[in-house]
Structure formats: structure tokens, C-alpha cells
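Researcher: I'm preparing a figure for a lab meeting and need a structural model of a single chain. I don't have an experimental structure, so a prediction will have to do for now. The sequence is pasted below. Please return the structure as C-alpha cells so I can convert it later.
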Amino acid sequence: MKRVLNSGFIKLHSFGGEAFKFEVKAPLITLLAFQDAHLGTINKPEDSEHQVAYLPSQFYSQDGSTYKIMDDKACNTYYTKLNNFFEWSFNFYNKLVKEGMCKEQAQLVLPQGVFTTFMWDINAPELIEFIDKNWSKSPEMYGYCSTLVLYLEENLPEITKSLKANQWQNIGL
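Model: Understood. Here is the structure written out cell by cell.
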């Protein structure tokens, strides 16, 4: 298992030939990027009933195509505001479920930063395509793509070496 950013992870469950099976813990907003790519197959793991609040310690601003960490005062302010919002959202979610609303519909009130865990089956060419198309979308996606590159490097070293020497040489992956 490899940690990603503050609270996420990617765990390789199996690799065979060119097929990877990953367990990914990521914010809902990041799951949407995985889904929007239409690459591989995404499934829920059997024990993914609980949600975990995502409270990043660092926040980013964007300058052109570069992300930079905001100053400590701004990070602390946003951390406090985000914590309050998440706490309210979870309390509201739990109230809706207690009053009888189904969990799937009650989850609509949860923020996109809430973590979820999913299984992702993907072949190597699609994985490379996913990394190519998503590494620069956000600091979170860069973190997940960088971690996926490490798994590529461990399991397909020659292909990864070629990619780093050619199409990935200027992007820091």
C-alpha cells in the first residue's frame, strides 16, 4: 500500500500480464475523475460502508498551470472552515439516515472531499492513458498519478523507463 497525500492510498491487490487490480481510497471528487476517464472498471469493495472526512493540512492556489501551497494562516483558516462544514454535513447525513432515508440518497449531502474506497481494474495501456490525461488536473490527481507511476515502475520497469525518458520527462512523474 502506498500513501497518497494526507489520507488516501493506492494498494495493488493483483497484477497479471498487463492487468492491475487496485484498491483506491480517495476523496469523492477524485473518484469522479477516475469515473470520467472511462478507463478500467470501478467497483465498491465489500467493506466500504463508512465514509471518512478528508481534512487536508495544506491548501493550494493556482498560478497559471502551477499549484502552490497557500501560506500557513490561510491554510489554518480554511482547515477550520472545512472541519466545521464536514461536521455539519456528517451530522445532517446521520440525521437523515436515522429518520429513515436510505443511505444512498442521504449521501448526496456529503461533501466531495469525503473519502471513499473503490476497486479499480485496469490494463497497462489504459493506466498509462489515465496518467497522461489526469496528472495535471489538480494537486490530488498529481498525487494519485505519481503513485500509479510507482506501481508501473515496480511491475513494468522497461515500459516505465521508456515513458519517463520520452513522454513524461518534463512533467516530474
